[in-house]
């Protein structure tokens, strides 16, 4: 998958995340949502009512469309959570 | 967070311009202040920037108002203010008490002498068929991704909606090397021209606007006016966007539909004040389309109808950083005066000046929000199969049927359809539902009323509730 990070931003510390069993690179200080979008993930859940695929809409904590299980805690907003080395992230792709 | 107090003289909800300005001025006095914010970094939406932890800050010289803002961020960190980030206000109760959750790990209650709501605004949406497809983002999300995290949602995209913020987002996207397929603006070009003298009259925003437009036009990006997004299509993710031309009334002109192949679309339709917390606290609200919809009613000292509760910034009317900053100062001066503190920073003459400035800001507010006026046609032409409430997947047909059965107010509609009952608690769909009800029932916003708000008004973790500390 293509990395969508802007080149001119000189990043500091790399971290590794596990996303649905796959390893991806992220950078310290990023949110989980930013790391997922950068890695090319768009679909972040199935709507519990319609089961349609959904992705983030607002990116700032309002819409709750990016809630997912982070380190085993369900319903965490990816956009409001900073990445950490070894973080385990699970959602319905 | 071991040094937190149970009681604060001043509790401030929101660390945008108004919250920071108030906190910063109040911190010079012998007052215990707590400043809460839901975000990881303080500063609110406008001051978003790449965090130090992530990377070296890119060397773009910030505009004057942002410089002022960043200075406040430093001041707030240096001064003796208790700061709680990642903290969500969950409830406001009797006897000056609030419940908050921090980082989904713990909950606290605090009591206060003065409470200042500086809760800001959020984006307004206009639903269209397929807007729930992954790949459809708000222009706010586009900005957050670029400004806070240095990420593009896609290399190539389309921007649509209405208002000047489309152009700000477009400028940023182009600057960061994105390929913009076009800007589809719903209002006619003339609206912008009408608006410019007002902006020029009051703020240096004119130069920003000029910079955006010249970059966009020189990049050869097609800018189309009187265009509405009709549909987002795709199997599991966005693949195509259908855009149509609208007439002066905002009605779709049949046969003008055009399909764009794209994997990302950002939409923006202006802003609405985030009134839920003050609403829960019992503050009187007032509706004004020209202020962005439902706002908290305040007097010229930023006092709400509830004693010792104040409100400042976007929540009293959407109008930008200058207004928020000024109102934060006024709120601080009111609290100092009510506390009986002699204030060197705010002699009566200075307060009068700030209040006068606020009048100018309010005239800008009226002009600014008139750009986002929702035309009845754009609501009436929403197709039946369009999702309105995303969380509960309630479509326009279900809403129309419920209205047909007599649900003429938001709460009746909520009970009947489950709209606004999902995770976001109506933060995304409520303003649209108010517009739909107004138009379908031919009633005023005041007659329609609002969804009721109850604590906890955002999803709270049971784990955090278990770790409740007084």
Tell me about this structure.
The complex is a heterodimer of chains A (93) and B (470). With 93 residues, chain A is mainly β. Chain A has one domain: 2Fe-2S iron-sulphur cluster binding domain, sarcosine oxidase, alpha subunit, N-terminal domain (Ubiquitin-like (UB roll), Roll). Chain A is 8% helix and 30% strand. In chain A, the strands form two sheets. Chain A has a five-stranded mixed sheet, covered by helices on one side. The longest helix of chain A is centred in the middle third of the chain and has 7 residues, at 32-38. Chain B has three domains: 7-122 and 272-369, FAD/NAD(P)-binding domain, CATH 3.50.50; 127-268, 3-Layer(bba) Sandwich (FAD/NAD(P)-binding domain), CATH 3.50.50; 376-448, Orthogonal Bundle (Arc Repressor Mutant, subunit A). Chain B has 15 helices and 22 strands. Chain B has helices spanning 17-26, 64-78, 139-149, 164-175, 189-202, 205-218, 276-280, 321-339, 348-370, 376-380, 396-404, 410-417, 430-441, 445-448, 462-466, and strands spanning 7-13, 33-36, 82-84, 87-93, 97-102, 106-117, 121-123, 136-138, 156-161, 179-185, 223-224, 227-233, 240-245, 258-261, 265-268, 271-273, 285-288, 293-296, 309-311, 387-389, 394-395, 468-469. In chain B, the strands form six sheets. In chain B, strands 1, 2, 3, 4, 5, 6, 19 and 22 form an eight-stranded mixed sheet that branches. A five-stranded parallel sheet of chain B has the order 8-15-9-10-11. In chain B, helix 5 (189-202) packs antiparallel against helix 9 (348-370). The mean pLDDT of chain B is 91. The interface between A and B is large, with 45 and 55 residues.
């Amino acid at each position: 998958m293509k990395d969508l990070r802007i080149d001119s931003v000189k990043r500091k510390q790399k971290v590794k995340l596990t996303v649905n069993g796959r390893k991806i690179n992220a950078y310290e200080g990023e949110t989980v949502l930013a790391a997922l979008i950068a890695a090319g993930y768009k679909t972040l859940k199935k709507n519990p009512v319609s089961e349609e695929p959904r992705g983030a809409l607002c990116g700032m904590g309002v819409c709750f469309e990016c809630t997912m299980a982070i380190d085993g805690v369900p319903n965490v907003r990816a956009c409001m959570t900073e990445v950490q080395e070894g973080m385990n992230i699970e959602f319905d792709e | 967070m071991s040094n937190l107090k149970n009681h604060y003289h001043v509790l401030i909800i929101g660390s945008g311009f108004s919250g920071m300005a108030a906190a910063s001025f109040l911190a010079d006095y012998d007052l215990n202040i707590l400043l809460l914010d839901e975000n990881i970094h303080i500063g609110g939406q406008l001051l978003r920037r790449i965090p130090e932890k992530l990377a070296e800050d890119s060397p773009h010289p910030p505009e004057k108002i942002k410089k002022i803002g960043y200075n406040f961020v430093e001041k707030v960190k240096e001064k003796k203010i208790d700061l709680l980030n990642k903290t969500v206000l969950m409830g406001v109760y009797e006897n000056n008490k609030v419940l908050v959750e921090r980082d989904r790990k713990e909950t606290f209650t605090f009591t206060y002498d003065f409470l200042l709501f500086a809760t800001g605004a959020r984006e307004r949406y206009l639903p269209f068929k397929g807007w729930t497809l992954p790949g459809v983002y708000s222009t706010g999300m586009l900005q957050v991704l670029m400004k806070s995290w240095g990420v593009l949602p896609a290399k190539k995209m389309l921007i649509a909606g209405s208002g000047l913020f489309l152009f700000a987002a477009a400028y940023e996207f182009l600057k960061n090397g994105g390929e913009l397929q076009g800007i589809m603006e719903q209002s006619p070009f003339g609206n912008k021209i009408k608006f410019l003298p007002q902006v020029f009259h009051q703020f240096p925003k004119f130069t920003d606007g000029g910079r955006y437009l010249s970059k966009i036009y020189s990049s050869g990006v097609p800018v189309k006016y009187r265009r509405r997004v009709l549909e987002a299509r795709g199997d599991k993710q966005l693949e195509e966007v259908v855009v149509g031309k609208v007439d002066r009334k905002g009605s779709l002109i049949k046969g003008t539909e055009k399909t764009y192949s794209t994997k990302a679309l950002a939409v923006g339709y202006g802003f609405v004040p985030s009134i839920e917390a003050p609403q829960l606290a019992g503050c009187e609200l007032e509706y004004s389309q020209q202020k962005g919809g439902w706002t908290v009613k305040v007097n010229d000292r930023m006092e709400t109808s509830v004693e010792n509760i104040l409100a400042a910034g976007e929540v009293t009317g959407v109008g930008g950083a200058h207004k928020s900053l000024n109102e934060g100062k006024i709120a601080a001066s009111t609290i100092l005066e009510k506390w009986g503190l002699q204030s060197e920073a705010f002699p009566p003459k200075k307060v009068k000046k700030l209040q006068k400035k606020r009048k100018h800001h309010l005239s800008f507010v009226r002009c600014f929000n008139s750009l986002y006026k929702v035309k009845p046609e754009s609501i009436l032409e929403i197709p039946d199969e369009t999702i309105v409430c995303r969380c509960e997947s309630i479509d326009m047909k279900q809403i129309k049927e419920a209205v047909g059965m007599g649900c003429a107010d938001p709460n009746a509609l909520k009970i009947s359809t489950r709209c606004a009952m999902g995770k976001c608690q109506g933060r995304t769909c409520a303003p649209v539902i108010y517009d739909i009800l107004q138009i379908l029932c031919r009633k005023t916003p005041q007659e329609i009323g609002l969804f009721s708000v109850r604590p906890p008004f955002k999803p709270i973790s049971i784990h955090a509730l278990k770790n409740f500390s007084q």
